[in-house]
Amino acid sequence: MPFTNFGLHPDLLKGIRDLGFARPTPIQSEAIPPAMSGRDLLACAQTGSGKTVAFLLPTLHRVMSAPRRTTRVLVLTPTRELAAQVLEDFRALAKHTPVSGAAIYGGVSMGPQEQAFRRGADVIVATPGRLLDHLSRPYGKLDGVEYLVLDEADRMLDMGFLPDIKRILARIPRQRQTLFFSATMPAEIARLAGEMLKNPVTIALQRQSAPAAGITQAVYPAAQHLKATLLVELLKRGVMPQALVFTRTKHRANRLAEHLSRSGVSAERIHGNRSQGQRTQALAGFKSGRYTVLVATDIAARGIDIEALSHVINFDVPAAPDDYIHRVGRTGRAEMTGEAFTFVAPDEEADLRAIERAVRTTLPRVTVQGFDYRAAAPPLEVPHAQRIAEIRQRKAAERERSKAKAARRPPATSVPALSSSPGSASRGPAPSSPSARHARTRTSSSRARQSRSRYGTR
């Protein structure tokens, strides 16, 4: 079925043609018709299957002829990166329309976001925390919302946003259309959907969690201390032109990015301790090809949409199968192909077996010919206890230096007290008041008159 069969506004069809979309994906074919008819929607489909377009097109179509100066569409996302990505997709689809939009998320100034509320942007894409910040202000009103979209709802629950979501629901009209999209459908999501949706159309294109069919998966066994060396080896052999690499912690992301840079690989990292400007710059540089590798924690697993990304690397095996699915779902998007490699150390085999049970397949093991699996290498990550000990040692050394510096400082020179006794040799000049200066002037004039009288001068 082509997009023209949905009855979309001609200006939206222009945006679709500009993007080069030839035909809708399965989730778009299933979701767009009931959404355009006003039905609530509960949709579960794979990461990278085109869910963003599936909810943007029908909501944009329905607000095309609406009065402006009020926000009618609210899209909630779990991460800043995903909010920015949804806004980017919105702008591409709405390029030929008068519909306006804005992204609301933390890490950046609230001023431009406040203006979006005041001017009544038609579409607001927001993370829950920053949205609540604005809703606590007098200008933060969403009384005109008619369409609510929860994107990546399962991830929002994983990140603990359920209380925030309920607070937001209390601030928007109860009479609305709600579109509920998720990559997985655990019991918590089903319960939340039951509370929010009214007689929804249910779409479950992917009942069992699994990566997209176009993703080739493989496992690379390697000791923990050799993983960084193995990654550099694969990159230098040209196995992958560009790779998104996921690590378990922010500290490991930093250390891996530094190791890659020292090895001559252009790399940047993105995680929760980086400022929004740094995260935006890193993602933009990766998309433009400036960086060969982007090292990320799971904060980016659902916020990165890179056209034709060829490789995703699980540098650390994720602890939960769903996290594995979302990570590898950054490649093979929109029915394209990609490869996902997972580096597995002996102590991670149990987590890998859980993933294989979830995806119902045994992932093939790959051994790199010519790579020295017995080589010695320093560990990538400094153990937490050692890091704490080093920090304490450094602070103790700083305190000792401060004490030594204070000991070398000469003692302060005391200023002698002023004496009022006559003839005191140590007495300095007394402070002068206006009356004292006037008295000295009169005395000096009197002495001058006596001197002139004594010598007969006038």
Summarize the structure.
This protein has 458 residues and is α/β, with parallel strands linked by helices. 41% of the residues lie in helices and 13% in strands.
Describe the protein in words:
The chain has two domains: 3-204, Rossmann fold; 215-378, 3-Layer(aba) Sandwich (Rossmann fold). It contains 16 helices and 13 strands. The chain starts with 9 loop residues before the first helix and ends with a helix. It is globular. The longest helix is centred in the C-terminal third of the chain and has 25 residues, at 384-408. Helices cover 41% and strands 13% of the residues. The model is unreliable at 419-434 and 444-458 (pLDDT under 50). Helix 2 (26-36) runs parallel beside helix 3, helix 3 (51-63) crosses helix 4 and helix 6 packs parallel to helix 8 (162-169). The strands form two sheets. The chain has a seven-stranded parallel beta sheet, sandwiched between helices. It is α/β, with parallel strands linked by helices and 458 residues long.
